[in-house]
From TrEMBL:
Keyword Membrane: yes
Keywords: Membrane, Transmembrane, Transmembrane helix
Membrane spanning stretches: 21-44, 64-89, 110-138, 144-168, 189-207, 213-235
Domain of life: Bacteria
Species of origin: Leisingera aquaemixtae
Protein name: Uncharacterized protein
Amino acid sequence: MKGWSIFSHSVSMVLRNFQAAIQIFLVPTLLVFAVVFAVVYAVFQSGIIPVGQAVNMPLGSVSTGFLLQMAAVWVVVMLISIWGVVAWHRYVLLEEMPEGWIPRLHTSNILIYFLRAVQLAIVSVISLIAVAFIGSAFAEAAGYFGVAILIVLFIAVALFLSRLLVILPAAAVGRAISLSDALEATKGAIPALFLLGVCVFLAQLVVELALSAVAGIPVFSLVLQLGFAVILSLLNVSIMTTLYGHYVEGRPV
């Protein structure tokens, strides 16, 4: 039941430190919203993407310069988001208390965290493409049995990638951990990670059911949706923190 222990510990972490979470994430979150709003407003004001045609606009009609600018904006948004995430990891793992409403800016840790996240994204894409090719061949050749194999392969890849997540909190606290180190630290963690994944899935399912129940009340539904999005995001970050603390540092859960 270690998977449940990790999940419940992460939930407790969020609930016990909710005030600190607000102090850490409020300013970065507001900055992200401000950047996104400013960029969207500027794009529509400039006429690059006419109002009402954004969805139907072919990619080939968008200039390379515009795409590069959007990529730069994405990097900025990611770095601002990681600023808060790094502060949260350090608050939990190093007891680095937030001072006021602006988290401490650990520039080197933020940049390393970003690069490690990109590294994980590349590994994820390569793994998923490989599974898609192999699994689709099985599915085409063996029908429903092949589809079952494809599902098992995707679950296996998800568990493999979950074992690598500990490199992110490590980057936040300034500890260098390679992918092989992460796999070594999480050896034997597959059953716990599988149960943890089931718990996260069920939590998201409960959220979806709650949102569907209030879908007829637009304003309340929007507020609830934003609230749940923030809580689930914080929960996911806390799960990564717990995984690192337990499997790398040997902390109990």
